[in-house]
Amino acid sequence: MSDSIPPVEQNPPRLRDIPPVEMGFLDHIDQLRRHLVRSLILLAIGTGVAFFFSDRLLGLITDLFKAGSSDKLTLLYPAEGFIVQMKISLMGGFVVSSPFIFHQIWSFVSPGLYSKEKRMILPVVFATTLAFAVGVLFGYFTLPYAINYFLSFSTADISSTWSLERFVSFSLQVMLASGVVFEMPLVVYAAARSGLVSVATLRKYRRHVILGLLIVAAILTPPDVITQIILAVPLILLYELGIILAVIGNRRAEGNK
User: Fold this and answer.
1) CA dist list (Å): 183 to 36, 88, 164, 242
2) What is the 3-state secondary structure (H, E, C) of 20-50?
């Protein structure tokens, strides 16, 4: 009877040693399509939820203008109010659904990860969402400085007549760009930990990166120097934070060996 008992495997494969799943090109395309469709559905649901609060969200944005000027924002064409409401709903919907959208992004990447790395998806999604939310809030609370600067150009002979749609678009663009910018430490950390670049390389080309970040800030923000500086300074600081996180991560990895 003992002969029928299968031998016990002495060294069973560990969970972290299970290799990634290999997929063909068409499989990747199909997987990407599914995740994109899910992300769009989640964005549509989030936009629908944000639409019910669009008036309140609009008030939060227009309060930034009221704090620096006694003038009123202007509707310049018939559909402008509706377009503004839809833009705010879309932005609010993206913020609300961002945790689920980021999860879809990382789920698309997960087949190429080892089992141990897959367990980090939820913490990474949380960190990505938190960084994006903090960035959006940073953009919101720094907007008054840019607005007051632009309002200072009005004089006794020059009045400020700002379009509601242009002002809201400007504000949303700054907040969205700021949210994307705050992902910088995670991107730098992931690139260093995955072996794409080394910490020494990140430090060596620091000046080149700073120049590139200034260009990125100019692209992401409206065409004015003040807003570009407001975005460029955090970009540089976040890049340095990414290097620090990469150094800490490498030391921990070496200590666990």
Assistant:
1) 21, 22, 29, 9
2) CCCCCHHHHHHHHHHHHHHHHHHHHHHHHHH
Distances 234 to 131, 149, 180, 181, 240 between C-alpha atoms, Å: 13, 19, 11, 8, 10
As to burial, measured by CB atoms within 10 angstroms (0-12 exposed, 13-18 middle, 19+ buried), residue 158 is exposed
Element (H, E) at 119: none
* pLDDT tens per residue, range 52-77: 888 898 988 988 887 666 678 888 88
The radius of gyration computed from the CA coordinates of the chain, to the nearest angstrom, equals 24
Q: How far apart, in whole angstroms, are the C-alpha atoms of residue 227 and residue 181?
A: 13
pLDDT digits (tens, 9 = 90+) for 174-195: 888 888 888 888 777 777 766 6
Which SS3 state, helix, strand or coil, does residue 251 take? Answer: helix
Residue recorded with tokens 């559909």: 79
Chain centroid to CA 232: 15
Determine contact, residues 44/100, Cβ cutoff 8 Å. Answer: no
Return the structure tokens found at 74: 């202007």
Report the predicted TM-score, pTM, of the whole model to 2 decimal places.
0.72
